[in-house]
């Protein structure tokens, strides 16, 4: 379930309560009049089934409460209540399938912002990838995959395309378009320095056997990217963080960027171009899979997704509506 905490101007309070009362997925409604100081107003709280979240939030937004008051939304991990059970049963759909768009947009918006933290993590990941290539170390390459923060902007870009939120899509594209070149430039400087010390040599890179998969682009490169993107988006909408870690160590975005830099400094342009191709394939595959997953996710309330319509068509109404 979701917990809603709202500050409502007194003139809108009755309308907000009416919205909550009319939706069978809302329960545990409480009201404290006049307790909010900034902005001034009444405090209303409620628990809402995830399946009903989009509909409730849309109606509250239509009232203008976001402009004159405010809404705070958060997940509820454990609820011991028969009233909550009835609300979940009454709401159409299944809780694990519900995509609460406002929650997803807020999460991906934060992770898609170009800032010093994003650049630092991406740069460290590329440096780790370069070290992994130089030492032929799969463990270091996996470390670079885990550290890399690039899935956040990729997921946000997919959400922006599906929701037609082009500001979010543009913000994500800027983070990727600036982040990768900056990280690769720093890695380039570090790689040239390591080559001067003799830590990275052409013969060493030519003889790698354990991490050569990074630049070997093939049909499974796209397959893995699509599967990883689908799993990553599912993990975001269902809050499965363990699955998201699996996504990080299954795609070769950051390792490909690091390998391209190392190969270019050594004059191995063929390998550098293949690594860049691997990077492009993985980025495109992740975004494509994310868009497909969001487009096919079951909707609830006033939204009817293609998967909902298909299940109704074949008579599996119980999987969509209870």
TrEMBL record:
Which ranges does the record mark as transmembrane? 117-135, 141-162, 174-194, 214-237, 244-266, 272-296
Membrane recorded as keyword: yes
Under Pfam families, the record lists:
DUF389
Q: Which UniProt keywords apply?
A: Membrane, Transmembrane, Transmembrane helix
- What InterPro entries has UniProt attached to this entry? DUF389 (IPR005240)
Q: Does the keyword Transmembrane helix apply?
A: yes
Protein name as it appears in the record: DUF389 domain-containing protein
Which organism does this sequence originate in?
A: Nocardia iowensis
């Amino acid at each position: 379930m979701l917990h809603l905490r709202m500050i409502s101007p007194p003139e809108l309070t009755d309308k907000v309560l009416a919205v909550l009362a009319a939706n069978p997925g809302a329960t545990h409604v409480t009201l404290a009049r006049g307790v909010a100081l900034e902005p001034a107003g009444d405090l209303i709280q409620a628990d809402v089934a995830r399946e009903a979240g989009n509909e409730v939030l849309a109606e509250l937004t239509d009232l203008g409460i976001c402009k004159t008051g405010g809404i705070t939304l958060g997940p509820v991990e454990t609820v011991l209540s028969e009233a909550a059970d009835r609300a979940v049963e009454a709401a159409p759909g299944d809780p694990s399938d519900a995509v609460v768009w406002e929650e997803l947009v807020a999460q991906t918006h934060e992770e898609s912002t170009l800032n010093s933290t994003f650049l630092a993590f991406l740069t460290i990941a590329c440096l780790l990838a370069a070290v992994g290539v130089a030492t032929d170390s799969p463990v270091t390459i996996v470390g670079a995959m885990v550290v890399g923060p690039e899935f956040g902007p990729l997921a946000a870009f997919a959400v922006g395309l599906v929701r037609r939120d082009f500001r979010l899509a543009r913000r994500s594209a800027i983070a990727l378009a600036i982040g990768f070149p900056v990280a690769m430039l720093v890695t380039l400087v570090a790689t040239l320095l390591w080559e001067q010390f003799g830590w990275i040599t052409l013969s060493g890179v030519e003889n790698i056997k354990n991490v050569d998969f990074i630049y070997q682009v093939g049909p499974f490169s796209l397959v893995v990217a699509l599967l990883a993107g689908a799993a990553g988006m599912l993990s975001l909408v269902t809050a499965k963080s363990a699955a998201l870690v699996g996504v990080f160590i299954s795609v070769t975005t950051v390792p490909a960027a690091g390998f391209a830099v190392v190969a270019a400094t050594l004059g191995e342009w063929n390998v550098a171009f293949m690594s860049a191709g691997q990077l492009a394939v993985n980025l495109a595959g992740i975004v494509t899979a994310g868009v497909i997953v969001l487009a096919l996710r079951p909707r609830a309330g006033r939204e009817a997704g293609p998967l909902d319509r298909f299940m109704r068509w074949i008579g599996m109404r119980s999987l969509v509506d209870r």
